[in-house]
Design brief:
Largest interface: A-B, 56 and 70 residues
Distance between the termini of chain A: 65 Å
Distance between the termini of chain B: 68 Å
Number of helices of chain B: 24
Radius of gyration of chain A: 25 Å
Structural class of chain A: mainly alpha
Number of strands of chain A: 0
Strand content of chain A: under 5%
Shape of chain B: globular
Structural class of chain B: alpha+beta
Helix content of chain A: over 70%
Oligomer: heterodimer
Strand content of chain B: 5-15%
Number of strands of chain B: 10
Order of helices and strands of chain A: HHH
Largest sheet of chain B: 6 strands, antiparallel
């Protein structure tokens, strides 16, 4: 009984080591001195994160445009208010899209609106 | 098997320590393979704890009384489904459940964010593994579920009779899922602050988990209330018990967060408020867990052991200090760039709702921890009771319900007075009609209850109007029949309409609470066979006594050696309404000093409630039979003297003789009768609310389309926006 338990423990340990160390082993195999350069990777991560932020902001803006339309259709916004809100929201959405389209080096930090 | 369990715990601890180090090293040096390795440590932790949990569960199901936990909380006569649930009835088993659920939810969130939020997720991984490591450490150093005794006892003590209720199968896992899910937004909030990425993306990534925390915690709270009502002999569903309060507090702050996060998502506002709410919710969840285990406050739900107090206090102190430091040090980036466009906007209503929810939480926090606060200042622990809580929470609850009716009819960003007036007409008319009907029915003496009914009617009016107008707009656009339009409306706007359904559920629940607490008739008195009493409009007659002995007649799996009760006939104006059978179970103490017969019924006496529940009222009864009469005592005394301890069958015969004596000549029994109106609506309201929560949490079909759209050119999207 104790041997089988010891065996089960060793198997579990081996599986854990394999699962946890897999990314390290993969990185070791694909070691490329240029791509391992820390500064470059940091910049790439920052850029990806900025882009993700902008995409989140874009999704939120689209949702806001849809919500404003639903508010108007359910009588919570007058025509004038809806037009003003919708115009502002679409301008903000276009601003976000412009930033998303901008070359990466020009890509400013996203700004919630 | 216990050895395997202990090995799992040690391995889990090592994995936690490694994962924290790998995640932090990865994020600090920019080496993503280390962050990835840290993330996989969470998966490994989930796998290891699954094995550990399975080991303990198998030990319970196989009656392995060599495990101290099994011997202390189960027995060979415990029904199988209660054996499975008995795992979390002990301190040690519940710690394992907590850590296991945490590892599962953490794995899920980290899997879903594996391609996003790299830095934030790496810090969050470290925080989540920190929590995992903390709970595993408790099991390694303080309260191990795998402690054994050799030789193993022949049988176990059995499950606490109070926990032999079907809801105990799911109440703790729901509550613990809620608590553990609360730590996920907390971990990502800390991650966002550490990574200095406090935009809405981390909120978007963890929003569903915050919703799931709210959902599970809510179901856990409601099941706990149901258990209290149906199992405990006091007839209430909420007693402002410290442990009940501890679960309600994070639920309230999570509710506030679920409203205010929309403002950050839409407007980039309330960043500091949101991150503070998330940190508070996670910390309150840990405090709730601490309260059950520390023994610092007396509660029927607590484990009572005081050994875990110091580690938990240390963890909470670290959490509070780290939260304050992070929020203060990042205050510049948490500053909002926008202001409210108008005081008459949905944002303002959400803000007001947040203030009320946080005020409610503060009141409950103060009342719950008052014994500790008073002891710290005066040296004497003074507690506050339900009237104190009611004094502050009832008005706040009224305002909250009212706001939940105002919010749906106010637009985002701005609303004009003219529009607001137009939108409030129908809900106000519904509320006014309710008020007139209530006064006409002669129900005017309870102002708070009347106010709650009117506020709830206002909510029903405003949400009903929203559904009506939404369907009308949808029909105008798509020319669909009303049911199709309704389904399409909800499907396309799950968060909005799911949220509205939650509002209806909560208003319904509060109607149940207000009615049952304000218009309740209760009576406690002694009755002999054949006697009757009036409770409210009902006449209750004690028809005959009942007696059952285990295991022959224990159909409800109560596990009681002897159950004594009564058959009651309930009538209203001479018409039969229900037949009720309350009883009280007497349990084996396992203490030989009480004698060979006495120990069979010398343990805990647990009331088994009987009620007739309906949509308009519940008739609730409990009985406390008197077994100290000279006649019954004589049976026990003679049995103790003549039957040796080694002949339990003969001892049980004496118990059967005692049951027969009770049936032949029943002494007067004490009864507790309660007639409460609309209690059923508390459970119905909860069900509606959580169904609405499910709708809101469910991924919208448009999400898939949007993911495809993300790949399309931004230029095309821009031209669409300009054309519109």
């Amino acid at each position: 009984m104790s041997i089988s338990i010891a065996l089960a423990t060793v198997v579990l340990l081996a599986v854990v080591v394999l699962v946890v160390s897999a990314p390290l082993r993969a990185a070791g195999r694909a070691l490329d001195p240029e791509s391992q350069e820390a500064g470059g990777r940091h910049a790439a991560r920052e850029s990806a994160a900025d882009r993700a932020e902008l995409e989140t902001a874009r999704e939120a803006k689209y949702r806001e445009i849809r919500d404003a339309e639903l508010d108007y259709r359910t009588g919570k916004l007058s025509r004038e208010d809806y037009d003003a809100v919708d115009r502002a929201l679409r301008a903000e959405a276009i601003e976000i899209l412009d930033r998303l389209e901008a070359p990466e080096e020009d890509c400013p930090k996203p700004r919630a609106s | 098997m216990a050895l395997l369990g202990r090995a799992c715990l040690l391995l889990a601890l090592a994995v936690c320590v490694y994962g924290i180090g790998a995640s932090l090293y990865g994020v600090r040096t920019g080496r993503s393979e280390w962050s990835e390795s840290g993330r996989r440590a969470v998966y490994a932790l989930a796998g290891i704890l699954t094995v550990a949990f399975a080991v303990l569960e198998i030990a319970f199901l196989r009656d392995d009384f060599g495990f101290n936990t099994v011997a202390g909380t189960s027995s060979s006569t415990t029904p199988t489904f209660y054996k499975a649930a008995a795992v979390w009835s002990s301190q040690e088993g519940s710690l394992l459940l907590w850590a296991w659920l945490l590892s599962l939810w953490s794995s899920l969130v980290l899997f879903l964010t594996r391609r996003r939020l790299r830095d934030v997720a790496a810090y969050a991984t470290a925080v989540l593994l920190g929590f995992g490591g903390f709970f595993v450490s408790l099991m390694v150093f303080y309260a191990t579920p795998f402690a054994t005794t050799s030789p193993a006892p022949a049988d176990g003590v059995g499950l606490d009779p109070l926990l032999r209720h079907p809801s105990m199968m799911i109440h703790p896992p729901m509550l613990y899922s809620g608590y553990t899910l609360c730590t996920i937004p907390l971990a990502f909030g800390i991650g966002a602050l550490l990574a200095r990425r406090v935009d809405a993306e981390w909120i978007r990534a963890t929003r569903r988990f915050a919703f799931a925390a709210w959902f599970f915690l809510g179901i856990g709270i409601l099941l706990g209330a149901r258990w209290s009502y149906a199992e405990l002999g006091w007839g209430g569903y909420w007693g402002w018990d410290p442990v009940e309060n501890a679960s309600l507090m994070p639920w309230l702050t999570a509710t506030a967060f679920l409203h205010s996060l929309m403002i950050q998502e839409k407007r980039g506002m309330l960043k500091m408020w949101n991150v503070s709410l998330v940190l508070a919710t996670g910390t309150l969840a840990i405090m709730g867990t601490f309260l059950v285990r520390s023994g610092i406050l007396s509660s029927i739900h607590a484990f009572g052991g005081a050994t875990l107090g110091v580690p938990f206090v240390t963890l909470i102190a670290v959490l509070v200090a780290a939260s304050i430091y992070l929020v203060v040090s990042r205050r510049d980036m948490l500053r909002t760039e926008h202001r409210l466009d108008s005081l008459l906007s949905r944002e303002s209503i959400f803000l007001a709702n947040n203030i009320v929810l946080v005020a409610l939480c503060f009141v409950i926090f103060w009342g719950t921890y008052f014994p500790l606060i008073s002891e710290a200042f005066t040296g004497q622990a003074a507690s506050v009771g339900p009237p104190w809580f009611d004094r502050y929470t009832v008005p706040l609850a009224l305002v909250l319900v009212l706001l939940s009716g105002i919010g749906p009819v106010i637009a985002w960003r701005r609303a004009t007075l003219a529009n607001a007036r137009k939108n409030f007409v129908a809900p106000l008319l519904v509320a006014a009609a309710t008020l007139i009907a209530l006064i006409g029915a002669g129900i005017g003496a309870k102002p708070f209850a009347i106010a709650m009914f009117c506020c709830a009617a206002f909510v029903l009016g405003s949400v009903g109007q929203e559904f009506f107008r939404g369907v009308r707009a949808r029909r105008a656009m798509a020319r669909e029949p009303a049911p199709t339009a309704l389904m399409a409306l909800i499907r396309r706007n799950r968060r909005r309409y799911g949220g509205y359904i939650v509002h209806i559920g909560m208003a319904t629940l509060f109607v149940g609470v207000a009615a049952s607490s304000s218009f309740q008739h209760a009576s406690e008195l002694g009755l002999s066979r054949g006697q009757s009493t009036k409770v409210g409009a009902y006449t209750i007659r004690y028809v005959r006594p009942t007696a059952t002995i285990t295991p022959k007649d224990d159909r409800a799996h109560t596990g009681a050696t002897l159950s004594l009760g009564a058959v009651l006939d309930v009538t209203k104006r001479g018409r039969h309404v229900a037949t009720l059978r309350p009883s009280e179970g007497f349990y084996d103490s396992g203490d030989p000093s009480q004698g060979s017969v006495g120990h069979f019924i010398g343990g805990q006496a647990v009331s088994h409630v009987s009620m007739s529940a309906g949509v308009t009222r519940d008739v609730w009864t409990a009985i406390a039979p008197d077994i100290s009469t000279p006649q019954l005592k004589r049976v026990i005394d003679i049995g103790n003297k003549t039957i040796p301890l080694v002949r339990p069958d003969e001892g049980l015969l004496a118990i059967a003789y005692m049951a027969r004596a009770y049936l032949q000549n029943p002494p007067q029994a004490q009864f507790h009768f309660i007639v409460s109106p609309l209690v059923m609506w508390i459970w119905i309201g909860g069900f509606i609310g959580f169904a609405g929560g499910l709708i809101a949490i469910w991924p919208a079909p448009s999400t898939v389309r949007r993911r495809v759209a993300v790949r399309s050119s931004a230029r095309a999207a821009r031209s669409r926006l300009q054309r519109a």
